[in-house]
Design goal:
Length: 119
């Protein structure tokens, strides 16, 4: 019998739902940008939203590896920011576009997390 070696991510359901919402927003941003004639801006917005949606999964992986949340937070944020700047350079737009949409995804996660914990 072959066993799967895939890493199981133990994330609260609202976090997964919000990450999926951010991925959905990324798809919409890319499509709307393309429809409005600015496919590079739409792609940059989509990339930032997708990067932001990946952050909870990175948090889960680091926690499952035994690291404390605060020990890797700055490194993870630097990694996401460097990725955002690199993606902006590849797409050919200002880095602020990707970083702004990355921050939007993070704000979505924070707001939905706060609303869920308030229940």
């Amino acid at each position: 019998m072959i066993r799967s070696t895939a890493v199981r991510l133990h994330l609260p359901c609202p976090v997964v739902e919000t990450a999926l919402l951010a991925f959905g927003a990324a798809v919409v941003a890319g499509l709307v940008g393309g429809a409005l004639g600015s496919s590079r801006i739409g792609l940059a917005l989509a990339a930032g939203l997708a990067l932001g949606a990946v952050n909870p999964f990175l948090v889960s992986l680091s926690l499952r590896a035994g690291f404390e949340f605060r020990n890797l937070s700055l490194g993870r944020l630097i990694l996401l920011t460097v990725a955002a700047v690199a993606i902006a350079g590849i797409i050919g737009v200002g880095a602020w576009v990707v970083i702004l949409s990355l921050a939007t995804a993070q704000a979505m996660l924070a707001i939905f997390g706060a609303l869920e914990s308030a229940r």
